[in-house]
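User: Show me a protein chain along with its predicted structure.
Assistant: Here is one chain, sequence first, then structure tokens.
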Amino acid sequence: MGNIQEIDINELAELELDNICLIDVREEYEFVEMRVPGARLLPLAEVQDNLEAFPLGTPVYLICASGNRSGIAGEFLAEHKIEVINIAGGTKGWVASGREYLCGDGDLPMFVGSG
């Protein structure tokens, strides 16, 4: 992930999660199982088709299970001049750290396009 900034779950926890653009690029079934509060779903396969929905001039925080898929999405978005910050350790790291997480499928917070 040479082109994009990366932070870990401890740095993510210091942010006001409701006030950042936090996009989870996992599949819907993974998102339903467990997700970081404030995250919105946009599966990796849909990122390219929703490029216009990403804000310019505001960092987009990307998360997946461990940091790999979010890194792929981040590289793509960075090529299109979108400021991206990848979350190393991902949702699995967040949950393993004992932090609060959400689960269930009631009113899934989608980013754009899907659903």
